[in-house]
Structures are given as structure tokens and as C-alpha cells.
Amino acid sequence: MRKFLQKLLSAWVIRMSNRFGSRPDSKRIFDALTKLYQNLITSPGKRGEVLEINSESKFIIFSDQHKGARDFADDFSLAEKNYLQALDNYNKLGFSYINLGDSEELWENLLESVIKHNKKTFAAEQLFLDRNAFIKIFGNHDLYWDNDPLSQFNLNRIYGKVIRIYEGAILRFKANEKVLDIFLTHGHQGDLQSDGNWFSKWFVSTIWAPLQSYLKINPNTPAYDNQLKSVHNVLMYSWVAEQKNIALITGHTHQPVFASLTHLERLYAKLAKANVDNNKAEIDFLTAELSKRVAKGDEQPKLNKYKSAYFNSGCCCYNDGDITGIEIENGLIRLIKWSYKTSTEPERYILEEMKLEELMDI
Fold first, then answer.
1. How far from chain centre, in Å, is Cα 67?
2. In this prediction, what percent of the chain has a pLDDT beyond 90?
3. What stretches of the chain show up as alpha helix (H) in DSSP?
4. What is the mean pLDDT of residues 289-299?
5. Across 117-135, average pLDDT
6. Each residue of 141-163: pLDDT tens digit?
7. How far is 228 from 302, CA to CA, in rounded Å?
8. Alpha helices in 208-297 (DSSP H)
9. Separation in Å, CA 129 to CA 17, 91, 151, 323, 348
10. Which of residues 129 and 45 earns the better pLDDT score?
11. Alpha-carbon distance 133 to 188, whole Å?
């Protein structure tokens, strides 16, 4: 019966999840982002840190692990191997780690169950904390860390010390007498389905989680998705496009975005440039890549001229076990993926990269 219902309902469940999973409101989003950014720069340390960085600085940014109880509703279970290998690699290389929210799935699970089943991942994160190289930002599914009076007690149980949980952070990069503020927050602000909404939390924990567990459906398909099609992503981009010398990095939507374009959009943009340059090798490679995407049902997006200012780290809970994130290193910003699909051990892949200086307004 379960297999029959899986086949019957999987496409519908994923479609409904994408359609109703977010109700972003533009005014609420713009007001919330502006208020948080101003709060960070005028009162650093209260809602988040402002860190001066340079070309020697190294950061890895992951979001949306949604660590659960290792049941069939635990979207993180398949990605744990990639996540642990990635953290081990970045810790050994001396990276700082910014966890951008929804790290723990506390809408579907009791905290005690999450702690019990995620000791390895918490231990891997603690290694960054031991080096004073860990920033933890809350999202809507782990809002508990910001608003529960017992949160500090439980953080001490998990990490062995009390730590501050922030709403955002700013990485301030200076080059050629210019300043770029890289503004980081989870990105749920202004989303009427997520921004502290008690009904959404009740629905997820009472209705969605049991259904997902029974049907064994993970709606987080590998998301180098079509275009900048998520309404929430578009509104995040619209806010930052109006700012000067600010880049915005969020999570929340589970859809990786690099320099305001999704991976599929960038493939088509690269193909257009290769055609102009008459670069046959690049044309053949990109055509082959896009043929694979078309075979999976992706449609050619309409390419717009976006300001290269918005980034989304994607998530660490795709249903194939892959994880995506954002690296900042050597004055570069990169979209990366960790996967073990072509190997028995997780491997890192660079999907996109560019110089931070290119994000500065002329």
C-alpha cells in the first residue's frame, strides 16, 4: 500500500510543498531585512557580529540541515556523510563556519530526540567552536534557539559551553578603497508561513511530518533549479538590488543561487558566451550538460539582467544526499557541492566562483 501511495502522491506532495511552502510578503521582507542590517551595523554583537575580512579569510556557509530523529521524516539522514566529511575538511583547513539556520528540525521533532541522534554532527561543529570559528544563526525551523528561555542551557549540553545565537552577520571586505558588506541571514523574515507562524509549525509537526514519514517522501530534490523562480528568492534579490556595495547570502528556500542566477541560468549564460567566442570545446561541454537537464524536465529559462548581489547556500538535505554551500576564500566566493555519487567517499565540486571585488558597485 505504501509503494502504491508513494507512486500516486509523490509528485503531488512535492508540487504542493513548492506551491504552499512559502507566502512571502514584499513589504515585510524589505522592512525586516533593512531593520536587521541597520541593527547589525549600529549595534554589532546584539543580533549578530560584524567581522572585518580580507583575501586571507576563509569561511564555509551551510544552511538547512534540518537534523532530525533518523526516521523516515529526517531529510538530513542521507546527507550526513557528506556533511561530516565537509566539516572535517574545512576544519583541518582552518575555515570558519557560519551555520545559516534551520540546522535543527524542531518543528517536527523534540529537541531531546535531535540531540540523541546527531551527536556526531554536533561534535564536528564543536571543533569550529573550540577554535572560536563558529557562528550559529537561527532560522524558522530552529527559532527555538532565539526565543526559548532554556535554549542556552541546551546549547551548553550540546557544545559544552554557552554560545550566542544570532539573527544575522556581516562580513566586511575592503579592497581598492571600497567596502563590500556581505550580509548573511537565514532569509525567513517576511515569510508569512515561516516567520514565527504557530499554525505552520502545528501543520508541519502534526500533519506533514507523519505523512512524510509514512510515504518516505523527501521534497528536497537536487535543486540547481530552473530560474530564479522562487518568489521568496526574487524578493530577496529585489531588496539587495536596491542597496549599494551589499551582497546578500541566505538559505531557507533550499534553492542554490549564485550571483543572482541559479545554476541552470548560468549554464545557458555560459553557452551564449561560448557561442559568441566560438569556443567549440566549451559549446560541446555545455550542450551535453544542458541535454541532461532537459532530459530531466528542465526548461530553458528566460535570462534577465540581474545585479550580481544575491546568493543562496541551498541546503544540506537533498534527497540524493548531496549538500551545497557557499565558500569565501582567497578573495573569491564560490558555490560548492559535496557528493559521493561518483565515488565511495564524499568529494567537493566547485559549481561557480567569482572575485568578491566584482560584487562592488562601480
1. 14
2. 50
3. 2-20, 26-42, 80-92, 111-117, 119-130, 144-147, 151-159, 198-203, 209-215, 231-241, 263-277, 280-295
4. 66
5. 97
6. 888 898 888 999 999 999 999 89
7. 10
8. 209-215, 231-241, 263-277, 280-295
9. 35, 10, 17, 21, 23
10. 129
11. 24
